[in-house]
Amino acid sequence: MSEAELRAEIDFHEQVREAIASMRTTTADLLEQYEDEFNEGKENRFDGDKGPDKHLGFSMARQSTERLADLADRDVAYFFGRLWFDDGEDYRLGRRHVRDQDSNPMVLDWRAPLSERFYRASAHDRHDVAKRRRYGFQGSQITGFEDEDLTLGEETGSDILRAEIERPRTGPMRDIVATIQPEQDELIRENANLNLCVQGAPGTGKTAVGLHRAAWLLYNHPKQVRKSGLLVIGPNEGFLSYISAVLPTLGEKSVRQMTVESLTTSGYTISGTDTPSQKALKHDPRLADVARRAVWAHLGAVEQSPFDAQTPLEVSDNGWVWRLGVKYLEKSLNTAREVTTTWSAGRENLLDALTFGLRRQAEIRAGVSPDEKWVRAMKRSEPVQAFMEAVWPRLKPREVLRRLYTDADFRAQVCDGILSEDETRLLAVKGKAMRLSAADALILDEISAVVEIPDPSETFAHIVIDEAQDLSPMQCRAIARRSGQGSITVLGDLAQGTTPWAATKWSDQIHHLGKHEATHTELTTGYRVPGAIISLANRMLPDLAVDVAPARSLRSDGSVEFLPVDDATAGVRKAVDEALELEGAVGVIASDHSIDRLRPELPEDARVELVPASLAKGLEYDHVVVVEPEDIIAAEGITMPVEGAVTTVAATVGLRHLYVALTRAVSRLTVVHSGELPSYLRLLRTI
After folding, report:
1. Chain segment 374-402, per-residue pLDDT in tens
2. pLDDT tens by residue, 572-594
3. DSSP 585-649
4. CB hemisphere CA count around 247 (13 angstroms)
5. In angstroms, rounded to a whole number, what is the distance separating the alpha carbons of residues 69 and 91?
6. Do 91 and 82 touch, CB atoms closer than 8 A?
7. DSSP track, 66-109
8. What residues have CB less than 8 Å from 71, skipping those under 6 apart?
9. CB atoms within 10 A of CB 406
C-alpha cells in the first residue's frame, strides 16, 4: 500500500461524499419545487379548475422524504471494496449506488448482480476478477487498504476482514456488507420465490443473512416485494431493538419488524393470563381443529328452520309468491358446505343459491328478468333472512371464542375426539367476563380465518422469521396466513429452542408455516464466537435432544474463565468490573428469577446489560458473565394433564437456556458459580 494510492482513495471517498450531498440537495430542491406548485394549485384557482392531486402529493412527499433520509450523511464508509476485472474495468462497492453529475457510476450497490463477484471470487474460481481490494475504516474515514491478486492462484487471508469481524460490539447490531462470506452470499441472493430454511449454529451469521436477504430482495425485486411488503419477525422486542438499525443502514426503511405476538394481538386488549398448562395447550396444533369445529358447529339443518315440506320457504313479490321446497333448500345447503372453506363464503354461496331459485321462478312463471336491485331485495326479505339465521347465521369470531370458553356443553361437543376431558376443562372460563391472553389471540386468529378469508392486503410478499425454532405450531399457522402465496426465509438453531413447544425438526416447522417444501441449509462455521467458547457449547449438544452438527469457529482467540465464589453477587460485581477495563459491551446473563436481585448490584454503565436467560437469544456481547449455570438449567418445565396422566413438557428448556447464554460472547466468557458446575463444564475445567 503506497501513500499516494491511499491518498487517492481518500480523495475519491470525499468526492463520493460530495456526490451524495449533491444528490441530497437535488432531491430537496425537487421536493420544494413540487410543494410550491402544489400550494399554488390550491390557492390560485379559477372557477372550474381542478385542485391539486392530493394522493399524488402525498406519494411524492413520502418518496422524497424517504430518499432524503436514505441520502443523509452517516458516519459509515460509502464504499468498502473494489474490484479489477480481466478486461481492465474496475468498480468500487458500497451500501448504496452513487453516480456523479454525468450519471457515471462512482459506487455500485452491494446488492447489484456485479457485486456478487466481490464475495464469491477466489484464487481458484476468479469470476473474471483480477484483483480485489478491501478498505479499512475508522468511522467514515479510510485508514488503509489491502489487495488480493487472484491471478496468482494462491489464497491469502485478510487482516482487514478479520479485524472487522472481530471488532468489539457496541450498540445495536451492524450490517455485514463488508464481511459477507461466500456461503452467506449464496443464501442472501437465492431466488425470490424460494422458501429458504437456514439452520445456523451460534455466531454463523444467520440473522445477518436474513436481514441482508431482505435488503437484497427489495433492491432486486422492487415491484414484486414492495407491492405486498416485506415483514421481519423476531422473538421479542429486545431482539428487534437490537437489529433495528441494520436495514435502515442499508437504505431500507419500509420493512415492518415485529414479534409474532404483536402480529396476532393487534387490535385486541390483552389483559388475561394463562397457567403454564393452559398456555401449552393453546399453542398446540390441535386447537386449530377445535377452532374450525367451533365455527362449523353453528351450521344448522333445514328441519331446524321455520320451513319444512308442508310449509316451504315463501317470499311475496308484488302479488306473486315464490316458493322453495325442502329438497331444494337441503341441496343448496349441502352444496354450499361442500364447495366453500370459510363460513362467510359458504353463507354467501347459500344466499346466492336461494336467490337463484327465486329468480328462476320469476323468470319462468312471471316471464320477467329480475335485476340486481330485485336480487338484493330478495336477500333482505324476512323469510330468507329467517332461514339464513336458522341454518347459517352471521358469526363474530370473538363470540365464537366466548361460547367455546363459557358454554360447557358446546365446548364438550367441539372438543370431543380432539382433546381429553382434562384438556377440555383447561379451556373453561368462569363467569361472563373473558379477558384475552396472548395465547387466546392465536385461537381467535384461527377462528377468524375460518369465518372469513384473510384480507389479501394483510399478506406479505416475503417474511423473514428469525429464531423460528421457538415458534409454536399455532404461531406458525398465524404467520402462514400472512404469507399467503409469498415466500419465507426461516432462520434459527434447533439447539437454541427454549420454549416448551420448540421445534426439534425443521420439516415440521416448515409444514406448520404452510409451505410444502423449503430449501434447507446448515451453517456450521462461526465467525463471531471464538473457538474456545464454541467448543464449550458443543459439549452440551448430546443432551439437547436435537440433530444438529457441532459448530466450528474460524477464530482461535477468545477466552473462557470459571470463577468459583462463595457469594455469587460479589463474584458478578468482580467479573463485571474486570470486563469494563477492556473495550466492548458486557452482558450479564442469569436465571430469570435472579434478575431483580442482581440489578442493584451492577454498576450504572451504558456498556453493561443485565439479561434474563430466557431473553438472551440473538444478542451478542464482547464479554459475557454467566451467573450460576445450575440455576439457569433449573428453569421449570411445564406439566400438564394428557390423557389423564401428568406429563412434563420441554424438560430440556433449562439446558437450552444455558447453551444460549454461553454462546452470546464474541470475545470473552466468565462463568460465575457458587455451587457445583454441570458435568460438561466441570470436564472442561479440569483439562
Report:
1. 999 999 999 999 999 999 999 999 999 99
2. 999 999 999 999 999 999 999 99
3. -EEEEE-GGGHHHHGGGS---TTEEEEEGGG-TT--EEEEEEE-HHHHHT---EEEEETTEEEEE
4. 25
5. 25
6. yes
7. HHHHHTS--SS-S--EEEEETTS-EEEEESS-EE-TT--EEEEE
8. 20, 23, 24, 27
9. 17
